[in-house]
């Protein structure tokens, strides 16, 4: 966590969004708990996915650093990275739209040495 109070607050904001907004939608889509209503659910939730990704896109376009909070990977990038990666790879409510700043940020996360070491150590690939 950054020492600067404003940066710490920003990391916490992104961490909350990763679980409270992005991952909740991914779970609702990807759970398979109600396959008989999956199409209706996707139609209803895709607007929320687009709105959330539009927000993230706008935030990233205004940033000057490579990552969510500056030029180094933080817990915010780690947590948000999983949620965003999952949603994009599973195409959960994202069809017909792209978010270039989000995609560029996610590429930076994937290229980070810490991420690469974690993938190498665990063998995990989404």
Topology:
Elements: H1 5-30, H2 38-62, H3 75-90, H4 100-111, H5 113-122
Helix pairs in contact: 1-2, 1-3, 2-4
Brief overview:
The chain has 126 residues and is an all-alpha fold. 71% of the residues lie in helices and 0% in strands.
Task: Tell me what you see in this structure.
The chain has 126 residues and is an all-alpha fold. It has a single domain, classed as Up-down Bundle (Glutathione S-transferase Yfyf (Class Pi), Chain A, domain 2), CATH 1.20.1050.10. It has 5 helices and no strands. The mean pLDDT is 84.
* Named CATH architecture: Up-down Bundle
Element-by-element helix/strand order: HHHHH
Radius of gyration: 15 Å
Spans where pLDDT lies below 50 across 5 or more residues: none
User: Mind describing the biggest β-sheet?
Assistant: none
State the end-to-end CA separation. Answer: 25 Å
Principal-axes geometry comes out as globular
Beta-strand fraction estimate: under 5%
Task: Name the CATH class.
Answer: Mainly Alpha
Q: Give the class from helix and strand content and strand pairing.
A: mainly alpha
Give the tags:
126 residues, mainly alpha, Glutathione S-transferase Yfyf (Class Pi), Chain A, domain 2, globular
């Amino acid at each position: 966590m950054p020492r600067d109070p404003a940066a710490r607050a920003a990391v916490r904001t992104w961490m909350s969004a990763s679980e409270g907004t992005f991952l909740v939608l991914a779970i609702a889509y990807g759970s398979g708990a109600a396959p008989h209503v999956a199409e209706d659910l996707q139609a209803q939730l895709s607007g929320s996915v687009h709105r959330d990704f539009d927000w993230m896109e706008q935030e990233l376009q205004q940033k000057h650093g490579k990552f969510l909070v500056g030029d180094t990977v933080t817990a915010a990038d780690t947590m948000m990275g999983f949620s965003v990666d999952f949603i994009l790879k599973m195409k959960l409510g994202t069809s017909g739209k792209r978010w270039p700043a989000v995609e560029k940020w996610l590429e930076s996360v994937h290229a980070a040495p810490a991420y690469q070491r974690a993938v190498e150590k665990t063998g995990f690939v989404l």
